[in-house]
Design goal:
5 helices; elongated; 48% helix; single chain
Length: 118
Amino acid sequence: MTGQRRHRNSSKRRRPSRSRSTRAELQFPVSRVDRLLREGNYAQRLSSSTPVFLAGVLEYLTANILELAGDEAHNNHRMRITPEHVERAVDSNPQLSRLWGDVATSQVDDKPQSTKNC
């Protein structure tokens, strides 16, 4: 058999690799959540399903907040969601406002005063 190479399992083709986010059907990056959990030293040991679950929870909360903020923007006849819409959406929802509790919101003016003399 010179010149010919036979590979084991040559009839099987290797499947293309799929990310953990794709396997879990999530948009949030499971691998990044896993890395941040491990680097943060939140626990000595982590289950392999922990970052998948946390990414799913974060994606669910984000989708809910964005949907409510989009409704708020639509009610104000706006095409874009602004931080004010997000803040009003969270404040108007009792469950989200309880979750956020006493989180300080920004106290920035809408339009800063210009110091130019024209």
